[in-house]
Amino acid sequence: MENIDVISPENASGPPSPPPPPPPVKSNSGSKKSTVQKCDRFASKATRDAWDRMFDEAHGADVLIHTDDSGLIYAHSNVIGMASDVIRGMIKQDKRNSRRKSISILGVPHDAVRVFVRFLYSSCYEKQDMEDFAMHLLVLSHVYVVPQLKRVCESHFENTLLNKENVIDVFQLALLCDAPRLGLLCHRMILKSFEEVSNSQGWIAMKQSHPSLHKELLRSVSYELNSLKQRSRKQKEIQTYTQLYDAMEAFVHICRDGCREIGPTKIETPHVSCGFQACNGLEMLLKHLAVCKLRSIPGGCSRCKRMWQLLELHSRICVDSEQCKVPLCSSFKERMKKQNRKDEKRWKLLVKNVLSTKRIGGSPFFLQAIDVTM
Fold first, then answer.
1. What start and end residues bound the annotated signal peptide (predicted)?
2. How far apart are CA 157 and CA 164, in angstroms?
3. For the chain, is the Cβ count within 10 Å smaller at the N or the C terminus?
4. Taking a C-beta distance cutoff of 8 angstroms, is the pair 197, 190 a contact?
């Protein structure tokens, strides 16, 4: 005691020294990763461990939870009642004047109920427990209104647990448990892998127990297949119209500037690209048209017929036929006046679709899509 200096406020020359800093925390990066998944990032590990210990030891528990197979779980009414309003109402309905209240959670395995009650305490769970009881926990979270647990279950199904074998069961649970996002993910998987899903045990069971849902899924699959066919057909049409527009631009390029072996100016190195992908095919058709002996015979040569159609299409979208360098442009303009109404309507529809593929930055040699009247 003699070695302790007592410093009075009067004799103190300054404020007392602060306490030493805590020792540095050792890194656990090399240790094995824990299987416990934390859901509440704002609570410290010590706090979560304390809640888990309170649940495991059940000291002072005043609620007895009955489960299937005569299972019993001890809990604290204040804790589980604060976590779930439904459970709090169940506890209040027990009118017995015993030291412990009694409630029942039936219809799911005993271990699933234990994982559920533990989550009410600490918002923690074992990874393996989630993999084993995710469906049961989703149902419990919905029945007892625990939205945090429902979000956890939905996240696990979305990221890891959903597969082609359980997608039908999860889809039905999502509909019953008001989980629209999870239901949408299941529906997408069913449409994407319908052949495999339709052979699963879940599909067979659903067909027998819920025939109306089975018919609705078949209807949605049929609708999706038809939509895919329509989109594919539309894409092919757009691709065809784009190729026709490119061919029209290549026509003007060949006849005005020349390219490779055709036109006013020829390229000495034929392998050099001119920037128009359709040039090569058009040059071959033009060469064939110049030497073909069947071109003037009706229905004689399919390649010549195709060339005539391309020339007529060009004449219909050409702005100025008198100044145009493409062969027979003005002749086809005159021929259009003699066509019947049905053929004219079909050609105008084709012209409008071809011009619509280049709504921005169209060629100055062609009409605009808005200039075409049906």
1. none
2. 12
3. N
4. yes
